[in-house]
Batch of 4 targets.
Target 1
Amino acid sequence: MPPYSVASGSVRSAAEVNEQIRALWLRAGGSLSAQERKEYELLVVEWAAAIRGTVIKAA
């Protein structure tokens, strides 16, 4: 998983992060290990930050 900091803001678009989330679930076969769950949680936080950034720009 590439290093990034959600606190400094998401560099990737929500679509990019969503694709990574989908790929994670596909690789995991629908059942996440403890490590995959941590990765998923970080990705969801990054995705939410990217969505917020899009909404703020649109306003």
Target 2
Amino acid sequence: MLLALTSAATVAAVGLGASASAVSIQHSALVGQDPVNWTPHALDGTAFKILQVGSRVYVGGSFTQIRSSSSGTVITQRRLFAFNATTGAIDNTFKPVVDGTVRSLVAAPDGQSIYIGGDFTNVNNVRSRSVERISATTGASWTGFTVPDITGGVDELRLTGNRLLLGGRFQAVGGTTRRGLAALNAGTGAADASVSMNLDGARVTSTGATSGVKVTGMDVTPDGSKLVIMGNFSTVAGQARHQIAVVNLATSPATLSAWSTTRYQQQCSPSFPTYMRAVDISADGTWFAAVTTGARRTGSLCDTAARWDLTSQVANKQPVWVNYTGGDTLLSVAVAGHAVYVGGHQRWLDNPNGADSAGPGAVPAEGIGAINPVTGKAFTWNPGKDRGVGTEDIYPTSAGLWIASDTDTVHGEFHGRIAFFPLPAA
């Protein structure tokens, strides 16, 4: 048996101020290790994000060619496509034209449209910088939704109430300074001034490298009251917050929570001004899991998954547990009831004493792994996946678990950039 908020329930909750993007999937068991054989393939580039709305699954990325699992015919479809969620049949009526990488997808509350975010400047041959709303059936641009100029890429989208939250590498929205974090009116696309947190203090490595202020990961509690952000910043709203912060969305305008930690203040490898990569909040909104890159460094949270409490909004927070890869990057995380799934180009979990090697007790977890949310210890679940750059997205549904990446082999089988692990039969 599994419990889940359905898409319809999630959409209905939007009217009550809840977060449409925080789909609270609760699996009661691990998904299987053998992915289904009917999923379509992206044949080049990277699949960055997966979204299911009703019977359709959407995939966004940098790919330009796709094909079905049952045909050798290659289809040119750049950066965004859709297919049937149970048969894998490619939806040939959904034909958006996007001129740059799609990195984030969110369902609109009407159930008829979706929001896309990324590095594009035109959608359907009309200027649309970094964010657009499109028909969920045809991919056509949505009438009445017009976004102001956004000066940079959008990597994260979250919908809560009538606010569409943006996280990414941009520095201004509509001519107003908004470094890394901003909000739009979800209906019209107009800039929403209620989320102005003044992210600042871009971190600089010992070699002088920086990537500028940006948000690399974020998530909203299911009730829409709190936003967790992570990325390259040292202050938020004028207060010290080292690469991670919690924002109160229940207030208008939004305010900074007292929640803070210094555990991500330490520098990792000089190659990473920020090593924060992804965050996912639990179904009850009381905790979240965060994953990082950064290279192994004793005493740090580089190359780790960690669980954090959200119930107490206080300073000097410490992780409930930490799981170390032993020096390999984690890029994605999903809290799915029975397990916290993590993805990247890791080789192991439970590996605090490994240094690019399997230390005592290390558990193999090639490209994707599963962690017990209570103990923080890895399950032996290990489908085996080509590592590549890494698993970019992990997306639980009521039927199982989707992953998106830049590689083609899972469980010894060809799965072009996309794979789906079903839940075991009841």
Target 3
Amino acid sequence: MMNRFEGPGAREARIRYLDGDFQVTSPGAFVRCAVTGESIPLDELKYWSVARQEPYLNATVALNREIEANPELRKRR
């Protein structure tokens, strides 16, 4: 089943992720979550990693990816 961002004419944007902002380098309507592969409309994009240049669907996915990339974050002090 296609969602509204995968229909005819819908293109995936290319983004440069910055601190607190992002720059569209190639126009499009959405980006794909680096973890889930789900479409994220650009106007709903709120979570990304500057270091890995990856977008995330939501805060939970972003946190889990950060812990996956940095296992030492799991340790409680």
Target 4
Amino acid sequence: MTPILNLHDIDVTKFLAVLDTCEGNVYLVTSEGDRLNLKSKLCQLVGLTKLIEGGRIAEASIICDNKNDESKLFRFNFFGDTADAKVC
């Protein structure tokens, strides 16, 4: 699979809330080629802590198993649309 989305300067809290609404697996791809399944809370901690600078994601690539999840994350990335996500 090829990364479908490059995230830049993302609000981490909102991003995690949107991830919780995804139906399929969502992978964060590192610059080294590692893939972390972001549906796992452990992988979220490991993967995102490496990429966070000042409370925001500096840069990341995302791959989704589900086309609806791709659309949801695309809308979030470009428009900040959290849709049905419960943001605290």
